[in-house]
Design goal:
By secondary structure, the protein is an alpha/beta fold. About 30% of the residues lie in helices and about 15% in strands. The structure holds ligand MGD (2 copies) and molybdenum atom.
């Protein structure tokens, strides 16, 4: 028997932690996956989900051959086919659509972050669609509101370094469920706590994270900007600001002071639902701290005013000068520190000018004659690294689109997802254990390489290879379509950027991962140097003004803010938050039995809201609004604000009782900045199902 080998890899999932993994392989089979004990963030442990990665990889339902549809659309009836047949038919169909009067822009790629890897996520696929002249997808579904919010205030998604967290004296977990969505930050939070820091969760839901904090502040959804402005009101009124930092490194102090004056604690209390006295105390705690660490994540920006909310919170550490010290500042994401050579990898230069279709409006794009943005209707959809039938907002519109007889749909997948059920062709893709990749992180500052540990399951192929093969079948001969995966990794690392100095293929091959060329901890704005047009932290933003928006931070109410939409709120009085269930990763892992554990969709309801509706614990309820409905089992408890209900997500439609999840109720509206989704800006009513 051959001795077991250990192969270094990277967790591919959409999560800030981007863990370094060690996969034990015996006789060609992966037998164990663990977190690298030497990696400063992974620290030797994996999360509840990725601990099950082998169960997922070897799952009996893995797709192992191409499948062609043999029954009516959506019937889920498929038969195995050879790769030759699949590639021939798909290539011919895409070519004929590209050559038709509608042209190549009637082809739409649809992908997101099923894998965060640069090779399997955004390399050969991009080159292929660029050369084809397909429509481009605006990949907004997760982070764009906050990303643009950060850009407007501090210049980029350059966040405070989590490795500085132990040195902070106050930790605000603001709109983030750390233990679920970013668990590898938690040990750093605990170190800060051990060093005397107070840890406060600001969240409409008393999540498992909030439960572990010193305090839970149960804010009303979508009102965070008002809270931040209220804090600034008190900070300025009591002289707790850092005048020197303000003078040297910020733009627009006078305007911000004037704006903060409009948000006295009493007014902020009426907006946020937080008692005025608590707002004053929080402002004092923050103002008197030397290095408060504010961890915002993407949960709080899934509201109409989400961009402005992030922009506003991002002003706080410049007001108090917390950026000066390790452990101080704001972190939404650390991704802008990574300067891979994306131009070389994705080759945007190969695309003619084409239209851009917002992925969160897939329903509209598939059901309107002009894709909702002018130009030809969408005739072909190629889905990979995403499960839009389950995760895209307004799923009833998405499903109407996917059901179109004249839509040619190809899905590259590991499993027969809800989206794959609507495909004409399903192509089996490899998992992270079976292919090469390289990874950045949006929560730390390490680059990680993923080496294949095992041979592909069945006839599965990497996304990159599938696009190479399709290109060849279509007679596309551009040399960029020939590069193999290791070449793609090398190209992505071929950069003169300062942060990437020393990040080479050879170091990664030898060590598996390597830190960016930044000190530990990295204190990005200690001396200012913000990557904004002015080089300062911009309380006043000309770019915001140019977009026709308020140039100064302000509270922007959610679209479905009850007091602003009284008629709607009379019918649908509850705000539904459908943030991740601990054991799921968006809609990934829902089909892994040990993680689903025979559970059903649930909805957590405050006891007062339940009593008013005659809802008891364990009762099946209908959650609905004008966009749609789904059912769930009621849980009753005060771990949620009155007026808010929580449906842990994102369920596979076909694993629910009524083939519907929370996205039956969410809307295709866009946030104030970045054209992002408003998943949690969503009024509903609930009632007993029978
Ligand atoms: N286990 C697990 N981990 C994940 C994911 C997963 O699905 N499962 N998803 C990954 C992905 S794709 C992402 S983007 C990140 C997301 O990471 P997070 O942003 O941490 O995730 P969410 O759970 O969407 O939102 C966090 C919290 O925001 C709260 N919230 C909602 N609206 C508001 C608001 O208006 N104000 C405030 N203050 N709080 C609000 C929610 O109640 C929720 O508890 O996590 C990643 N990690
Ligand atoms: N109601 C509600 N909706 C939400 C959210 C929410 O909190 N509430 N969260 C939103 C957020 S933050 C995000 S980021 C999106 C996420 O939306 P998606 O990025 O679509 O994420 P997943 O649902 O995890 O689907 C990823 C799919 O990619 C597949 N996959 C993984 N690796 C590979 C690969 O190498 N090749 C191929 N071909 N396929 C692969 C997986 O099997 C999985 O089915 O969902 C959004 N939708
Ligand atoms: Mo996300």
């Amino acid at each position: 028997m051959a001795a077991p080998t250990v192969v270094r890899g990277a967790c591919p999932h959409d999560c800030p932690d981007a863990c370094a993994t060690l996969v034990t392989v015996e006789e060609g089979r992966a037998t164990r996956i663990q977190g690298d004990p030497d990696h400063p963030f992974t620290a030797g442990f994996l999360c509840a989900k990725v601990n099950r990665y082998l169960e997922r990889t070897y799952h009996r339902d893995r797709l192992t051959t191409p499948l062609k549809r043999v029954g009516p659309k959506g019937s889920g009836q498929f038969e195995p086919a050879t790769w030759d047949e699949a590639l021939d038919v798909i290539a011919a169909k895409l070519a004929s659509i590209a050559q038709s009067a509608d042209g190549p822009q009637s082809i739409l790629p649809y992908s997101y972050a099923g894998t965060m890897g640069l090779v399997q996520g955004s390399s050969m696929d991009r080159r292929f669609f660029h050369l084809l002249g397909a429509s481009q997808l605006d990949r907004t579904i997760c982070s764009m509101a906050g990303t643009v919010g950060m850009r407007m205030t501090v210049g980029a998604s350059v966040g405070a370094d989590g490795q500085g967290l132990p040195q902070s004296d106050l930790v605000l977990l603001w709109g983030t469920n750390t233990l679920t969505a970013n668990p590898h930050l938690w040990p750093f939070v605990l170190q800060a706590k051990a060093n005397g820091a107070k840890v406060i969760a600001i969240d409409p839901i008393r999540t498992r994270t909030a439960d572990q904090c010193d305090e839970w502040i149960g804010i009303r959804p979508g009102t965070d900007a008002a809270l931040a402005l209220g804090m600034m009101h008190v900070i300025f009124a009591e002289g707790l600001q850092d005048d020197d930092y303000l003078a040297r490194h910020t733009l627009g102090e006078a305007e911000l002071r004037a704006r903060a004056l409009e948000y006295p604690p009493k007014r902020v209390a009426s907006i946020t639902g937080i008692p005025a006295q608590r707002i004053v105390e929080l402002a004092r705690q923050y103002g008197k701290a030397k290095a408060a660490f504010v961890r915002i994540n993407y949960g709080l920006q899934r509201h109409g005013g989400g961009g402005m909310a992030v922009r506003t919170i991002a002003c706080l550490p410049a007001v108090t000068g917390h950026w000066r010290r390790a452990g101080g500042g704001v972190q939404l994401s650390t991704s802008a520190n990574f300067q891979f050579n994306k131009k070389a990898l994705e080759r945007p230069d190969l695309s003619p000018p084409v239209r851009l279709i917002n992925m969160i409006r897939l329903g509209e794009a598939l059901t309107s004659n002009d894709a909702g943005v002018g130009g030809p209707p969408v005739k072909a959809l190629v889905v990979y690294n995403s499960n839009p039938a389950a995760v895209a907002p307004d799923s009833n519109a998405v499903l109407r689109g996917l059901a179109r007889e004249d839509l040619f749909t190809v899905v590259l997948e590991h499993f027969q997802t809800d989206t794959a059920d609507w495909a004409d062709w399903v192509l089996p893709a490899t998992t992270q254990l079976e292919h090469w990749d390289v990874h950045f992180s949006y929560g730390h500052l390490y680059v990680t390489l993923n080496k294949p540990a095992i041979a592909p399951m069945g006839e599965a192929k990497p996304n990159s290879e599938i696009f190479r093969l399709l290109a060849a079948r279509m007679g596309m001969t551009h040399p960029s379509l020939q590069d193999d995966d290791v070449t793609l990794i090398r190209q992505s690392l071929d950069t003169t950027s300062d942060t990437m100095k020393g990040v080479t293929f050879d170091t990664l091959m030898a060590n598996g991962w390597t830190r960016l060329n930044l000190p530990v901890p990295h204190v990005p704005f200690a001396e200012g140097g913000f990557p904004t047009p002015s080089g300062k932290c911009e309380f006043v933003s000309e770019r915001m003004r140019d977009m026709g928006l308020d140039a100064v931070p302000a509270f922007t109410a959610p679209y479905e803010f009850p007091e602003n939409v009284p008629e709607l709120a009379a019918r649908f009085p509850l705000t539904l938050i459908s943030s991740p269930r601990h054991q799921f990763l968006n809609s990934t892992f829902v089909n892994v039995e040990s993680l689903r554990r025979n559970a059903e969709p649930e909805v957590l309801v405050h006891p007062h809201d339940a009593a008013r509706r005659g809802i008891g614990a364990g009762m099946r309820v209908i959650v609905e609004n004008d966009r749609g409905h789904f059912t769930a089992v009621a849980k009753i408890g005060d771990g949620v604000r009155e007026g808010v209900v929580w449906a842990p997500s994102v369920w596979w439609l076909k694993l629910t009782a009524d083939h519907a999840n929370a996205n039956a109720t969410t809307s295709q509206r866009e946030t104030d900045l970045g054209h992002g989704p408003v998943f949690y800006d969503n009024l509903v009513e609930i009632s007993p199902a029978d």
